[in-house]
Amino acid sequence: SIYIIIIGIAMLSMWIFLLGKREVPELTTKPTQIYFHLVAELLTSIALIIGGIGLIMNQS
């Protein structure tokens, strides 16, 4: 369950880093596609973090 949380944080951190450094050229070339991709990645990372926390809380 710790692994799940780490992956969720890593996904979120990667996108924050890439967007902060303006390393996502698709924002100008394919804005609609990258928007949906970013939303999917954000929801996935949040689900991983919440799921991992839920697993830890359920084990105690």
Automatic annotation (TrEMBL):
Chain segments annotated as transmembrane = 5-22, 34-57
Keyword match Transmembrane: yes
Start and end residues of each DUF8058 domain: 1-59
In its keyword annotation, does this UniProt entry include Transmembrane helix? Answer: yes
Q: Which UniProt keywords apply?
A: Membrane, Transmembrane, Transmembrane helix
Q: Which InterPro entries match?
A: DUF8058
Q: Which Pfam families match?
A: DUF8058
Q: What is this protein called?
A: DUF8058 domain-containing protein
Q: Which organism is it from?
A: marine sediment metagenome
